[in-house]
Amino acid sequence: MLRMFETHRVRKQTELSYCLWDFSTLPRDGAEPVKKKMAVPGCWQNDPETRIYRGRACYERTFYAGGNLRLEFKGISHTAQVYLDGEEIAFHYNAYTPFSAVIKDVPEKEHRLKVIVDNSFGPRSALHVENDYQSYGGITRGAALEELGRAYITSLHVTPKKTEKGWSALLEAEVANLTEQPFAGKLCFVLRGADSQSMTPEPIGAGCGVSLTGGGTQKIRAEIVCPNVKEWNPDTPWLYTATALLEDESGKAEDDLIDRFGFREVRVEGKDILMNGQKLRIKGFCRHEDHPQFGCALPPQAMWQDLLQMRELGANSVRTSHYPNDEIFLDLCDETGMLVWEESHARGLSEEAMRNPNFERQCEDCIREMIQAHYNHPSIYIWGILNECASHTEYGKSCYEAQLSLIRSLDKTRPRSFASCQFKRDLCFGLVDVVSYNIYPLWYYDTPADEFLADMYDWIQESSEGAGKPFLITEVGAGAIYGYRTPEKVKWSEEYQAQAIEKQLTAILSHGGTSGVYLWQFCDCRVCDSWFSTRPRTMNNKGIVDEYRRPKLSFETVKRIYREMP
Ligand code: ADA
């Protein structure tokens, strides 16, 4: 399962995941390789024989097909080399974004698919580094084989537009010709309501002629006026499907691509973030894709359980800290109205780390792939980048500027931000639409929460280019070891965490200048072994629930405050 709905009815898609592939570690130190079956999707850390293995491994399986083929991988952690019958057909870096490969004129027979996966650290990897979260190893998200015809639809983006006459949908698709001969036909767009009643009795965009030269591509745009639609918002998350249907000259269906979207508009107005004209009040959680039984490869049911618990806590938003999330999770957020701050992959990189020669390209690739794949999700209301990186230096600022400009060039419909920890030395608040800070009063420093927040806020308004912009607290919290209770309420006890969060959240939600808060973090998560000295159990223990989603004392505290405070 790659998504929570069918993305094709014409194109033949065969799932290559939710099964066992042949697996072998490829140890560099001459150790005996571990050869066995391994689950896809999955992390090899969840197998007792490879629990602590970091390095290269080989996944293999066969499939029977022929013609023009497209292989899609939703996530491989963290570097992949893909081979078909021994020939390299794709290379991809980053665990958290999808990639695909198109192979033409493949003979119809059984083929061998091999994926070399590498989760080792080193200078070639600027973003997957020893960090306060784990870089797992494996084919960690879904994979599929698709059989294409002569031409296919490579992408479909839907931009809802509100006018004084009501809503319309701006559609943009790209089609590609896989043959050397010209391809002529037409592209139709059909929009259907959540209840599958077609809003447009006749396929719209029938006039969209397609005329492709050999090997050429063509962008097709259309605007569909959509009367009487139901808007997407957190309380009523109405979804619609957009189908792009490619037909050849004889009218025969050649290919299709289906995605979902919602009629909603996000704007920044003064210090407010508005959705459909309504001010957003964020009460959220930062969440790592992490689980002791699945690593980062949570199955849909586990994702659903996380959303249910966040909802039970009264949350209305989740921050995908610190990387693009699985599209299945985003689909569930679309369906349940959970607002999403999605961010590209980076956490806590110094200027030196940002000067890694691979850094800019790896960041830009991640941003492009994230927005290309996730553009249509109505739940995503903001894009974030570079969590707690060097936004206090001129060099760092040049990187933030380049990446925020890239986002604006790819998506003009959503505000942009980044979570800073540079306090009164941040140089980048003039570059963003929303100012965001990670603060830890009562944990890393014992300043009272209301005092610390007021000081930060006043500095932003009086001395930074962030004055007058919406202001989000993107991280606040405290640690607690599940089951550690003390009458003294010392740090790491559940009692201390509950009382600290009470003060932190009360200060933030009663301060008139913020648009809301994300607690760090929803659940305890695994961190890299090198973080052992400040992370008991080599876990980040600031979850409101532990890694098995068992509530800590602070669960009821958060639930009361999120539900009762405006
Ligand atoms: C930072 C960082 C988080 C986490 C947190 C913590 O704000 O963004 O990833 O490391 O600190 O637990 O200290």
Return the average pLDDT rounded to an integer. Answer: 96
Secondary structure: helix percent: 10-25%
Counted by DSSP, the helix tally is 8
Oligomeric state of this protein: single chain
| Bound molecule kinds, no repeats | alpha-D-galactopyranuronic acid
Radius of gyration: 24 Å
Termini gap: 38 Å
Shape: globular
Number of strands: 28
Largest sheet: 8 strands, antiparallel
The proportion of residues in beta strands is: 25-35%
Return residue spans where pLDDT drops below 50 for at least 5 consecutive residues.
Answer: 200-206
Structural class comes to alpha/beta
Structure explained in plain terms:
There is one protein chain. Helix content is 18%, strand content 35%. It has 566 residues and is an alpha/beta fold. Helix 1 packs parallel to helix 2 (327-336), helix 4 packs parallel to helix 5 (394-410) and helix 7 runs parallel beside helix 8. It is globular, with a radius of gyration of 24 Å. The protein starts with 11 loop residues before the first strand and ends with a helix. Mean pLDDT is 96; it is low at 200-206. Alpha-D-galactopyranuronic acid binds next to loops.
Task: Compose a concise summary of this entry.
The protein has 566 residues and is of the alpha/beta class.
